[in-house]
Amino acid sequence: MTRSGIGFDSHRLIAGRPLVIGGVEIPHELGLDGHSDADVLTHAVIDALLGAAGLGDVGEHFPDEQEQWRDADSVGLLELALESVLERRFRLINVDCTLIMETPKLAPHKTAIRGRLAGALGLEVERVNVKASTGERIGFVGRGEGVAALAIVTLSEPG
Ligand code: MG
Predict the structure, then answer these.
(1) CA of 39 relative to ligand 1 center, distance in Å
(2) Which of 13, 78, 142, 158 is a plausible cystine mate for 137, CB 3.0–4.6 Å?
(3) How far is the CA of 85 from the centre of ligand 1 (A)?
């Protein structure tokens, strides 16, 4: 039997912060605002992973109020979430995700992001898919005010 979970996240773009997407720092004049490194794509994947296992959400596991998660590397949080999932003897089947960002273009960084996420999840890169979309110049993404991400994770239940 398989189980799937979805994830969604969004963060504001501001000056003076790095733009970290899927564990990869992308050169840009703006970065994502948040308590951790605000890695919007990784946060969506964490929520999808926790969701598939019935383990709540990223905010419950790594609360914003806790100083220990300030500027945290979100790929490290993903690894911690994965530990909780694997402890329950679930096995990862695949991850698919979409980043919705107006600028800069994600294309030059997709391979690196895919590799970083696959490495953190202990999956072959073929089981991790990274897609990019834009806001078509409408809404908060289209106006360049923020970035959003969606993810889905499928697990197999303990046999
Ligand atoms: Mg977030």
Answers:
(1) 7
(2) 142
(3) 19
Q: What angle (nearest 5°) sits at the alpha carbon of residue 112, between those of residues 33 and 123?
A: 105
Q: How many domains does the chain have?
A: 1
Q: What pTM, to 2 d.p., does this model score? A: 0.97
Joined together, the tokens standing for residue 159 give 């046999």
* CATH number for position 92: 3.30.1330.50
Per residue in 90-101, pLDDT (tens digit) is: 999 999 999 999
The pLDDT of residue 104 is: 96
Q: Give the DSSP per-residue string, 42-101.
A: HHHHHHHHHHHHT---HHHHS-TT-GGGTT--HHHHHHHHHHHHHHTT-EEEEEEEEEE-
Measure 134 CA to ligand 1 centroid, in angstroms.
18
CA–centroid distance, 159 to ligand 1, in Å, is: 32
- Measured in Å, residue 18 CA sits from the centre of ligand 1 at 14
Cα 35 to ligand 1 centre (Å): 8
